[in-house]
Specification:
Length: about 350
């Protein structure tokens, strides 16, 4: 079996669902259930003996050591993190606790467990750390895309905490020999995405007749990858990645934020036109820019393509259509995640 952390969040839940959709290898899913963790994300696995959910913190050494001893996983896939840049600006403390201290504790528990394994299991064990392209910092419009050799220059508390965790993972390989793999992926989108992030926020606000807030001029560029393609890349790296290596994962989809929002508006105009016949674009508003806002991210995914033969299955056009359709088909999910805590965040962050 494998131990997945953060499997109640956006990417982790998609990963667990896809994993059990294609394999009978069980998953132990350790998640603290912060505001971003949602057990409804894996409601379809209720009663499925292949999925064991444990509520807890990756930083709880005794809990993690107990889980490793009891379930003897062949791999750990670490998704657990505080993941939202804007929240890291309002309050960085949780980011340091989970992304840095939590990853450190998880690495230590993994190292103790792995050191005591018999030789063949020790050889086969993997610790896969899921990270972000944001660790590389920002690009100008003409800079080449991030490669695995690009200097790490994080600019937000979130990306700095993720870069710190990547360094710890690297050091646990070089110093202790722990067989680690690190993936640095671009912005994901797709089903189960919590509506504090741009794409689900815009879909949900548009349908509710609310403003679609664009930070600054909206010409910031992100490289978007459909979440199921990220999951397939992680499965491939886990299967064939070389221990100690990092792999950049991206979708070859560089888009401006304003372009993304207009695409979503056009899809909604087609699939769920407004009652008054006006275009959803009329709801776009420009708001104060994010402090320290990175201008452009772009991923060179050549290494994973060449070495492991991975390629994304979706283009942005096919992936965003599926995503918008998923939100239209799951209004109950969207209503459930917009709890009191969510409304408080929106009121605080977008005030004025
Ligand atoms: P998310 O915020 O949706 O989910 C994070 C999950 O981790 C939640 O279920 C939360 O409850 C859990 N968690 C938080 N702190 C924990 C702790 N201390 N112990 C156990 N569980 C804890 O995030 P996501 O978008 O699914 O991102 C998953 C991972 O992928 C993160 O490591 C993130 O840095 C990375 N990543 C995300 C993106 C993206 O676009 N979303 C892109 C590249 C990499
Ligand atoms: P986000 O989804 O928060 O991801 P990240 O900051 O990790 O890239 O934001 C994606 C882009 O969209 C980013 O450039 C910030 C911008 N953005 C807005 O313009 N308005 C919003 O309300 C949000 C949440 C994000």
């Amino acid at each position: 079996m494998i131990l997945v952390t953060g499997g109640a969040g956006f990417i982790g839940a998609n990963f667990v669902l896809d994993w059990l959709g294609q394999s009978d290898e069980p998953v132990v899913n350790l998640d603290k259930l912060t505001y971003a963790g949602n057990p409804h994300n894996f409601a379809s696995l209720a009663g499925d003996a292949r999925h064991v959910f444990v509520q807890g913190d990756i930083g709880d050494a005794a809990l993690v050591e107990g889980l490793l001893a009891r379930h003897a996983p062949r791999a750990i896939v670490n998704f657990a993190a505080e993941s939202h840049v804007d929240r890291s600006i309002h309050g960085p403390e949780d980011f340091i606790q989970t992304n840095v201290v939590g990853t450190f504790r998880l690495l230590e528990a993994a190292r103790h467990y792995w050191s005591a394994l018999p030789a063949t299991q020790k050889e086969a064990f993997r610790f896969l750390h899921v990270s972000t392209d944001e660790v590389y910092g920002t690009l100008s419009p003409t800079d080449p895309a991030f490669t695995e050799e690009t200097t790490v220059e994080p600019n937000s508390p979130y990306s700095a905490s993720k870069a710190a965790s990547d360094h710890l993972v690297r050091a646990w390989h070089h110093t202790y020999g722990l067989p680690v793999l690190t993936t640095n992926c671009s912005n994901n989108y797709g089903p189960l995405h919590f509506p504090e992030k741009l794409i689900p926020l815009v879909i949900i606000n548009a349908l509710a007749g609310k403003d679609l807030p664009i930070y600054g001029d909206g010409l910031q560029v992100r490289d978007w990858l459909y979440v199921k393609d990220h999951c397939s890349a992680i499965r491939r790296v886990l299967q064939a990645g070389r221990p100690g290596e990092t792999y950049n994962i991206g979708g070859h989809n560089e888009k401006t934020n304003i372009g993304i929002v207009k695409t979503i508006c056009a899809l909604l105009d087609e699939l769920r036109p407004r009652a008054d016949g006006r275009p959803y674009e009329s709801q776009i508003t420009h708001v104060k820019d994010r402090p320290g806002h990175d201008r452009r991210y772009a991923i060179d995914a050549g290494k994973i393509e060449r070495e492991l033969g991975w390629r994304p299955a979706e283009t942005f056009e096919t992936g965003i259509r599926k995503t918008v359709q998923w939100y239209l088909d799951h209004p109950e999910w969207a209503a459930q995640v917009q709890s009191g805590a969510y409304r408080e965040w929106v009121a605080k962050h977008y005030a004025g």
